[in-house]
Amino acid sequence: MNQAPFFQTIYVLTRKIPKGKVATYGQLARLAGNPNAARAVGACMRINPDAPRTPCHRVVAADGSLTGYSAAGGITKKKAMLLSEGVSFDGDRVDLSRSGWQVEV
DNA sequence: AAACTGACTTCTC
DNA sequence: GGAGAAGCCAGTT
Fold it and tell me: Cα dist. A98→A39, A48, A79 in Å?
């Protein structure tokens, strides 16, 4: 893989997101060691070399809104997948209070 | 090496 | 509550 080390870090974190939960870009950025690198995280998702291995659909915006997702169906499909996993939705936004990924407490 | 771009985040109006 | 602007990071060209 030609992906940069930072990207791989994001991919690993993304794969660590438990089923039925979602993480925000800022959250992954924080776990990666850069709380302000949310954009870099988004870049990783955009590239997403291992789509089936990297559940980018489990990554949402800071307020739980679904953004991006170049795949077919776009946000709509993404929402459907999350619903399929048991993620709680509030309209078009994910209910982070219930389905937000709690890394460690 | 410099500049541009981007699936972000937060503030202010 | 919705819209706009600024700031942040890393990767790619």
Answer: 25, 26, 15
